[in-house]
């Protein structure tokens, strides 16, 4: 039983006119992944699905990534196979598809995670060309949100950014990801621009293996939401442990989100999963999370939000 699921981020979408475009985006991504999956490779399927989401400026990954407090893009990405091979990058800029750089880290180095300037130098070494992922829409959003912070008359801290997120919950809609099973191996991949107005140098859960991205012989998981929550709970790994203990992908997803809600409240997290039986799972404690999935026996993808 082969299967693939993608997500386009968890949060609250205030402008519901954007929902059809978001659903179209995740549907396009899962179809791209499904094409590769039917050729037999979960690894290619996850990379291609995430690349489609990175290239779509409506999502917060690759083109359209949100900006840091000082107006820069710092992107994170990770990919992991069920044989425990993994590659990740953190705080990279100047590339189009961070997920592909992460795959190169996995395949071409003995490391798992490269960060900042080192990640960028590696990308150039691997032939990734200079690319500016900043969009005009993100610049305008950054100006408005930054001004909102400055009007408080205090130096912004993470507590203030968290309060701003509560006031403008659409800024939490972050991260894209995919998980696939090709009948032999499970692969999970995640990519993000992070959280709007994050501190320069902040790294979220996405590139931290076990926190935002994880795959093993039992299941694969990709998380989305407030990265600090997933990091503190090692949420992606914890979700796969739930499968190891006997839950299927759906029940494990629900259990992972229940854990996040228990410790950190509502409106902070979503997760997608595929297990080794080809079962798909997804859950959230936010108002919205865009997902699309396909598996054997389906003629077209299901997309929902």
Task: Describe it.
The longest helix is centred in the N-terminal third of the chain and has 20 residues, at 19-38. The strands form two sheets. This protein has an eight-stranded mixed β-sheet with strand order 4-3-2-6-5-1-11-12. It has a four-stranded antiparallel β-sheet with strand order 7-8-9-10, with helices on one face. It has helices at residues 19-38, 42-55, 98-108, 116-125, 136-150, 158-167, 227-233, 235-244, 249-264; strands at 3-11, 75-81, 86-92, 113-115, 176-181, 186-192, 213-215, 219-225, 269-275, 280-284, 288-295, 302-304. The chain has a single domain, classed as (Glycosyl)asparaginase (Glutamine Phosphoribosylpyrophosphate, subunit 1, domain 1, 4-Layer Sandwich). It has 305 residues and is of the alpha+beta class. The two termini are 25 Å apart.
Blueprint of the fold:
Layout: E1 3-11, H1 19-38, H2 42-55, E2 75-81, E3 86-92, H3 98-108, E4 113-115, H4 116-125, H5 136-150, H6 158-167, E5 176-181, E6 186-192, E7 213-215, E8 219-225, H7 227-233, H8 235-244, H9 249-264, E9 269-275, E10 280-284, E11 288-295, E12 302-304
Helix pairs in contact: 1-2, 2-3, 8-9
* Separation, N- and C-terminal Cα atoms: 25 Å
User: What's the number of domains?
Assistant: 1
Largest sheet: 8 strands, mixed
The side-by-side strand order for the widest beta sheet comes to 4-3-2-6-5-1-11-12
